[in-house]
């Protein structure tokens, strides 16, 4: 378990040798100005990665905000497109042709020239469709539309199936719901064993457990917010958390987790809060 410093400039190395930021802004359920403002505030605060999806209908808003930031006076570091990591996801696994078309559309929508990380958003659709759509991601990488391929909401059986197909591209990421109240140790252990980085969506459990006594007690001990504690827990497990907020102050605070470290005994205490709390969908066991 990692006990090291983290900041918004921290990066994680992936199985394909590339790296990506270890904290990403989540923009689920945001649209229009709300999305644009959140992305701008995050980039100004030092975030260098944003997690979008076709189903969010905000790829254009995110891409536009990134480009506006890069060309603005707020970009005091002279950052370029390649310094910002943009993620999107395939809405549904229907066919190879539909997936290739959808990926091209996402590239056009975001306006960024390419997508850094593209994921199959879920395992729904069955084995044949999943593998077809993974081939589409592989070909999008070959064609320069995507840099890194991964999956989302895949359970162990789905990952085993993909790896058994001997894909040309090893899935670099599995993005799943992970937080202290849903630790998903079976999936995260499998990912660790097979060099698949775990991205943690809903790392704050959608604020459903912010007032839990253990979270409150440890937040007081470490002089941090409950959100900071949960993000730090995620980082110390070597996950890549995707905290979502549309409030400037919270966006800034969520990225400010370098000033403390959770000790080993307290990490175990937080691990034991697991209650399989699912805050959204849960496709990890689907056929």
Describe this structure in words.
- The protein has 287 residues and is of the alpha/beta class.
- The protein is built from ten helices and ten strands.
- It has helices at 32-45, 59-70, 96-110, 127-142, 156-164, 185-193, 213-221, 226-236, 248-254, 264-271, and strands at residues 11-13, 19-21, 25-26, 49-51, 85-90, 115-120, 146-152, 173-177, 197-201, 240-241.
- The strands form two sheets. Strands 3-4-5-6-7-8-9-10 form an eight-stranded parallel β-sheet. Strands 1-2 form a two-stranded antiparallel sheet.
- α4 (127-142) links the parallel β6 and β7.
- α7 crosses α8.
- The radius of gyration is 18 Å and the shape is globular.
- The two termini are 33 Å apart.
- The mean pLDDT is 96.
Describe this structure in a few short sentences.
The chain is an alpha/beta fold and 287 residues long. The chain has ten helices and ten strands.
